[in-house]
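INSTRUCTION: Work out how this chain folds

Fields: amino acid sequence; protein backbone structure tokens

Chain under study, with its fold:
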Amino acid sequence: MDKLRALTVYRRVVELGSFKAAADDLNLSKAAVSKNIYELEDYLQSPLIQRTTRKLHVTDQGQSYYQQICRVLDNLAQADLSVLESADVLKGRLKISVPMSFGLVEINPLICAFMQQHPALAIELLMTDQYIDLMEQGVDIAVRGGAPLVDSSLRSRKLADIKRVLCASADYLKRSPPLLSPADLSQHQCLVYSLSSSAQRWSFKKQQQQQDIELPVSRYTVNNGLALAQTAKLGHGIALLPEYFVKQALAQGELQQVLPDWQTEQHSLYIIYPYHKEQSQKVRAFIDFMLQHFTQI
């Protein structure tokens, strides 16, 4: 039995929840994955995984063993990195996850600049607005908007606060009821970003006043910020969007800010990475690069 391979296979089976998924992830046959697990259980003289036709269940001993081998495998990986990255030149591959819209508008150009600085480094970029499991997907680093982390297996650094703007086209506002306070939104078409943690509830502050608005059922809900901005520009309603997405449209008059005296709930942008990656030279270099950029704007 190749002990290191067996431990790696066992870890991915537990994390992905199936032999087939682990086989695909490790580029092995399902039979090879099964063989590694059987040999490991035979060596330990203890069942680690209980299998049924529909799903697998990790035993209590298997769960304890998984947690211990993760630390061992992560330490081995870190030892490798300490040698591989000992030179000044960054090498290897860095897998980065970013939101689709913000990635296109802001992050991808930065990644291109980072690649130019480090020509021996390969980048694998995963663009998605869905919150993914970094450990499961093998992601080194992610950029996400939202609240601070609660997952102890991850680390985060705050990049920037994200100002959000309530806006609509001049055409829409001309043919719609007056909008004098957040309460008037009940009479309007509100365009909704479905992946927001508060998609149907918008919060506003003005000095000591606060209004939390439950939105009416929207005719348009979308999981992409750029599509939301485009729909607002075409006159279909009011959208609450990061200023990054609409700064140019506001300057050119394609959109107008609505209720400018009311502050909307502020979100923040974070850079996130698995805790065992924090000593990686590649990860640290990318974090420093991003922090430098966002402190300058």
Remarks:
- The radius of gyration is 24 Å.
